[in-house]
Specification:
Length: 322
């Protein structure tokens, strides 16, 4: 068993049910649609969002028939957002595999993402919980707003760290928060527990995205399955690049890169400057701070194996290298 398998042990059977449900989604009547769905639904993700939803449900009146559809809807929402992200970024690979937009034309990939969004809505409706359904819809709005904000500020180097944190809160942390809070709500956990889990998910999501942004500078291309420096090449500022701009307000390769839009030499300079400074460690410290907040939010919950799994997910996120 891998480390993540051990962490997921308390919800192993129901996570397998989520996997089976995703398989049912991929079994579309049209063979070409089934192939497209299988390509994106089984591309090697860790299923972290559905796992968090299932674990959160264990603090209430856990019922598989409500929690599994919710967990499935969250994975579908996440997958659909990645399909659209890859189109926007013109990404050729994700997790070392070709993206939907590189395998199919962009128009087909856009509609595929829409199809998966619709499937996600079907599954969240199966929970029969109007509060969770509303939360799901609100999360889609927040994620879309953050994506639009990222698009509108592409190649603009006059951005702040606070704006970056707001953006990743919407684009990434909101879905982690909804997974944790929604999992509790669908199981009728107490309001205090649901609020604590929402805080856990949001802070975990912030840590997750910061680590992801660090790996865009420090990671290994083969392990990550995408080129190092992808964010900068797309004109997206992240915490490490913002700290570099802060450290070197003049004669900064990022400004020149954003003006030229396509310079491997300037990209290489920026990556080297980040790697040879204390920026990565400062960024990791910010991620660890969010991780500490995530675990602190769990303190009101019973000290069970499920809570331990949530705490260990935080460690896993902070220590991951892909």
């Amino acid at each position: 068993m891998t480390r993540i398998d051990i962490i997921y042990e308390p919800i192993r059977e129901d996570l397998a049910a989520v996997e089976e449900t995703l398989g049912s989604v991929s079994r579309a009547d049209a063979p070409w649609l089934a192939e497209m769905l299988a390509t994106v639904l089984f591309a090697g993700g860790k299923r972290m969002r559905p796992a968090i939803a299932l674990l959160a449900g264990k603090f209430g009146d856990y019922q598989k028939e409500r929690s599994v559809p919710l967990a499935t809807s969250l994975e579908l929402l996440h997958t659909a957002s990645l399909v659209h992200d890859d189109i926007i970024d013109s990404a050729g690979t994700r997790r070392g595999r070709p993206t939907a937009s590189s395998l199919f034309d962009n128009h087909a990939a856009v509609v595929l993402g829409d199809y998966i969004f619709a499937q996600a809505a079907v599954f969240v409706a199966q929970t029969g919980n109007t509060e969770v359904t509303r939360l799901f819809a609100e999360t889609m709005i927040v994620m879309a707003e953050a994506e639009l904000a990222e698009d509108r500020t592409a190649f603009d180097y006059h951005q702040s760290i606070d704006a970056y944190l707001r953006r990743i809160k919407g684009k990434t942390a909101s879905l982690f928060a909804t997974a944790a809070q929604g999992g509790a709500l669908v199981a009728n956990a107490s309001r205090d527990q649901a609020d604590a889990l929402q805080s856990y998910g949001e802070n975990l999501g912030m840590a997750f995205q910061i680590v992801d942004d660090i790996l865009d500078f420090s990671g290994d291309e083969q392990e990550m399955g995408k080129p190092v420096g992808s964010d900068l090449m797309q004109g997206t500022l992240t915490l490490p690049s913002l700290l570099l701009l802060e450290n070197r307000p003049k004669d900064n390769p990022i400004e020149a890169l954003f003006r030229e839009r396509n310079s491997p030499d300037l990209l290489a300079q920026a990556i080297t400057m980040v790697r040879e400074s204390d920026i990565l460690e400062r960024s990791y410290q910010k991620a660890r701070d969010f991780g500490d907040r995530a675990c602190a939010a769990l303190s009101i919950l019973p000290a069970t194996a499920v809570r331990t799994s949530l705490e260990e997910i935080t460690d896993y996120v902070l220590e991951r290298r892909t």
